[in-house]
Design brief:
This protein has 192 residues and is an alpha+beta fold. It has a single domain, classed as Glutaredoxin (3-Layer(aba) Sandwich). The two termini are 12 Å apart. It is globular, with a radius of gyration of 16 Å. It has a four-stranded mixed β-sheet, sandwiched between helices.
């Protein structure tokens, strides 16, 4: 039996943001954050993301706003959706472990609450400065082969476990896909 819940996420997913905000309200349960590159995962699974289908995209935007409101989560659809999240996700792996939570909180909020264009170098730099992360070291660090390989490994491992989207929760080798499946993952963890 698991003692924790694995949480597969990418900053680019609005549903991962919503799940992250729900997780923050849960006490006494250990979540292990597993960063993935959603575009890479979709390529491996041969999936076309909803962002590239105008009907799904419109529904996704409406749905995210509805779910956020119901769960009292501050949310603003980002007008620059989608962006390439590669540097952000590598950055999560590069920063010190004790800064990862603040890092992901800051970038999730910036993208899905503050509507910032994280593909803009100036906006990105402001966030790193706010987090007291040296920008030059960060730029070099996310190009480090070890960091690149680590993100690839997380993404490939997720695919091998049949994860096909974000957010995904895994408990006791069972997959729970989507922010609306968090309760099911918690039930599985608690043996219900």
């Amino acid at each position: 039996m698991s003692s924790h819940i694995d949480f597969y996420f990418d900053i680019i997913s609005p549903y991962a943001y919503i799940a992250h905000k729900k997780i923050q309200k849960i006490k006494d349960i250990k979540f292990i954050y597993k960063p993935i590159l959603l575009g890479g995962l979709h390529n491996l699974a041969e999936i076309t993301a909803p962002a590239f289908n105008k009907y799904k995209m419109k529904n996704m935007q409406n749905d995210c706003e509805l779910v956020s409101k119901k769960n009292q989560i501050d949310f603003t659809w980002n007008l620059k959706f989608p962006i390439n999240s590669l540097n952000i996700m590598r950055g999560y792996l590069y920063v010190d472990k004790n800064k990862q939570e603040n890092y992901i909180n800051t970038f999730f909020k910036a993208y899905w609450d503050d509507n910032l264009d994280l593909s803009n170098e100036g906006e990105f730099s402001k966030l790193l400065k706010k987090l007291e992360i040296n920008q030059e070291q960060f730029a070099d660090g996310i190009k480090n082969q070890t960091i690149k390989d680590e993100l690839k490994k997380f993404t490939n491992d997720a695919f091998k476990k049949e994860v096909f989207g974000a957010p995904t929760f895994i408990v006791n080798n069972k997959i729970f896909w989507g922010q609306d499946r968090l309760e099911y993952a918690l039930e599985e963890l608690n043996g219900y």
